[in-house]
Amino acid sequence: MEPAIAVKRRFRKFVEVDPVDQIKKCWIWIGCLCKGYGVFSLAGKKIYVHRWIWELVHGAIPDSMQIHHVCGVKSCCNPRHLELIDHSSHMKKHAATGVWSGSRNGNATRTTTEVLTIKFLRCYLPFLPVALIAKHTGTPLRTVYWIINGGGWSHVELPPYEVLKAEFENQEREAAA
């Protein structure tokens, strides 16, 4: 087992801290990342940096609790930017900020452009069968229904028709020139 001082020294090598404002600014982990979170090895085990720093400063994390990045930066390990909260509160905070919305969600299989295409076809060509929209966009039928019925991607809204028409006309002019 590495002595605590050696671990802290190794840890500091991978943290980028603003020398002018260490309190307010993020401490960015520049070492290995896993899904955007800083990780390092301790006694042959993968440790999440934000959890390690929390425990170092505040003590053990209870089983029912999680660490939330108040700053919204997953690679930040500034203890002042971390808070201990329960799972339900954590999910509500992420939902409210849109962290897991759309293509920012690591599990998303569609892009914002594809979703806009689906919504555009449904809105401006309502007579078009949903099965044809699914085929045209290469999207599973149930996913198309889910998108058009507001099950997901609700943060992606179509611009007004006039804006779309003006943009289309500009593209036509540029192509003709």
Please characterize this protein's 3D structure.
With 177 residues, the chain is an alpha+beta fold. It has two domains: 4-99, Homing Intron 3 (I-Ppo) Encoded Endonuclease, Chain A; 112-176, no CATH class. 43% of the residues lie in helices and 15% in strands. A three-stranded antiparallel beta sheet has the order 3-4-5. The protein has a two-stranded antiparallel ribbon with strand order 1-2. Strands 6-7 form a two-stranded antiparallel sheet. A hairpin with a 2-residue loop joins strand 4 (37-42) and strand 5. The longest helix is centred in the last third of the chain and has 16 residues, at 161-176. The termini are far apart. The model has no long low-confidence stretch (mean pLDDT 83).
Whole-number mean pLDDT:
83
Q: What would CATH call the class of the largest domain?
A: Alpha Beta
Radius of gyration, in angstroms, nearest whole number: 23 Å
Fraction of helical residues = 40-55%
